[in-house]
Specification:
240 residues, alpha/beta, Rossmann fold, nine-stranded mixed beta sheet, 7 helices, 28% helix, binds glutamine
Length: 240
């Protein structure tokens, strides 16, 4: 974090923001403020250039056509790739997650180019994955079990230069036949989880904040966010 404020860039809310993904920005602002870290959030429309000096870039989910348009504009802009080279934190959900990869499936399943910032490839599966998803996060990230809501046709495979974010406990996730959900490499992390993901999983929010400020942050007392997480975990894992 080079300046005295943590700069959060919420990318293309006019194209990529389904199921309340914008809540991810709000929870980051709040959890940073509770640690005395001031934030500044840019709500970046898709006709504006990506600012090069962000600390934390967020992308949400989207329908197929807005997703394709967002990928075209982000590729042409180049700012997010520059941010990744600086090792800024990038957190992406669903359509945003697919866009970070080498390619994703268009409306007819045709492969379309992504940004190539995360070593993943997405295509279109036979059926949509819709419902609650639960995953056990890679041990080295030290984040407890995560929960979210998924709604996607995309199927994502992870290449050798990225790692699975989590192992699926319930739901579909990447749908790659290996039971993985999401992926990460360096400070770039993607998931199929809406919810919004960072509201339902405060541990994941704190991981991103820790990466962005470059140091451990003090623990916060449990809040409604932990209660929500517990409630969603119980609901998702309850026998039917
Ligand atoms: N359009 C993409 C898919 O169906 C992403 C959907 C989403 O972001 N919810 O896979």
């Amino acid at each position: 974090m080079p300046s005295d404020r943590l700069k959060i860039v919420w990318i293309y809310p006019d194209l990529l923001s389904t199921y309340g993904d914008q809540g991810n920005t709000i929870v980051l602002e709040r959890r940073a403020a509770l640690r005395g870290v001031p934030t500044e959030t840019v709500h970046l429309r898709s006709d504006e250039p990506v600012p090069p000096d962000g600390d934390l870039y967020l992308l949400g989910g989207g329908e197929d056509r807005p997703q394709i348009l967002a990928a075209q504009r982000l590729r042409a802009d180049g700012g997010l790739a520059e941010a990744a080279r600086r090792n800024a934190v990038i957190f992406a959900v669903c359509a945003g997650y697919q866009i970070l990869g080498h390619e994703f499936g268009g409306e007819e399943g045709q492969p379309l180019p992504g940004l190539g910032l995360l070593d993943i490839r997405s295509g279109r599966g036979q059926q949509r994955a819709v419902g609650e998803v639960v995953g056990d996060v890679a041990a080295e990230l030290n984040v407890p079990r995560i929960t979210g809501f998924e709604n996607h046709q995309g199927v994502t495979t992870i290449g050798p230069n990225a790692r699975p974010l989590a192992k699926v406990v319930a739901g579909v996730g990447n749908g790659d036949g290996q039971g993985f959900e999401g992926a990460y490499a360096g400070h770039t992390l993607g998931t199929y989880m809406h919810g919004p993901a960072l509201v339902r999983n405060p541990g994941l929010a704190d991981l991103l904040l820790t990466w962005a400020v470059g140091m451990e942050l003090p623990q916060l007392p449990p809040s409604w966010s932990e209660r929500l997480r517990e409630e969603r975990l119980n609901a998702a894992l309850a026998p039917r």
